[in-house]
Amino acid sequence: MKRENRIYAEEIKKLLIEKGISPSYQRIRIFDFLTTNRIHPSAEMLYLQLIGEMPTLSRTTVYSTLNLFADKGMLKRIFIEGTLVRFDIDTSDHMHFKCTKCGEVFDIFKSAKKLLPKTEHKVINEEVYLYGICKNCK
Amino acid sequence: MKRENRIYAEEIKKLLIEKGISPSYQRIRIFDFLTTNRIHPSAEMLYLQLIGEMPTLSRTTVYSTLNLFADKGMLKRIFIEGTLVRFDIDTSDHMHFKCTKCGEVFDIFKSAKKLLPKTEHKVINEEVYLYGICKNCK
DNA sequence: TACAAGGTTGTAATTATTACAAAATGCAAA
DNA sequence: TTTGCATTTTGTAATAATTACAACCTTGTA
User: Fold this and answer.
1) Which residues of A touch B85 (CB under 8 A)?
2) Intra-chain end-to-end CA distance of chain B, in Å
3) Chain B residue closest to A127 (CA)?
4) With contact defined as beta carbons under 8 Å apart, do A56 and A74 qualify?
5) What is the spatial distance between Cα B35 and Cα B33, in angstroms, rounded to a whole number?
6) Which of B8, B46, B84, B107 has its CA 20 to 30 A from that of A49?
7) Structural domain boundaries of chain B?
8) What is the pLDDT of residues A46-90, one digit of tens each?
């Protein structure tokens, strides 16, 4: 589902409880960051952003929270860096574009599912990564 | 380019020299393995396969050779495992399917380029990964 | 035959991530 | 309000894949 850009603490609390996740301060802040800053961050990027305002935050909390959210279907793991995991709060079917100049990752809101071919295998999941020069850099 | 299944030592030598790579024994054996066994191996998989017949082979050689080949455009790096790099000797435009049951990786010979949408960004490269149950497992 | 350039090897370092145990927190029952 | 328990967070240590690097080998050439 696609979401409004910002969801405030109370709404995030409700949402987490709905998903069976107890709404700790850290989890709320991490979720808030993801809805506010749609930058498909890695765990490390998120940690570096939040550590300024949450000096006791640990990397382990960031990793475990992101994995928890992903396992509950609230986040998608994306692998547009090759080996590094980045996270996308938008779990709808869409593709990703990464600018090889500025490094920014953009969503491309076309369903890959409809475009891609039928095969002799049973396809359950699809990931499409596009690379090139973004509209801002060219 | 797509290749015949097996290219023998002399042909591999020629090919490596053409690409500006000196044809050492290790490089020939690694290239031979890739053309003979089209299993999209990781560095580790390749190392484990070859160490039986080449007892002094080191992991470092496998990694550096695969990176050399990839940088010369003779191999494609594929990221269908998330965290692990695998290599494909077929550098033509095509997609990859991974069976989540048996782990095998298949080529899907459709050009993603033609199927995928135009965007406001300049797309130079595309990677498509499909996941599901393969024809053998279902 | 000796030398230089380049290739291979093994070990150590690095990076991203997970495992784990101790400390902190929140909540419910007494 | 305190006690106790379950859960969460934290920090450190471990792991996995990969790269850096220096020493050792090979090979071709003068």
Assistant:
1) 82-83
2) 31
3) B129
4) no
5) 6
6) B84
7) 9-88, 95-132
8) 999 999 999 999 999 999 999 999 999 999 999 999 889 999 999
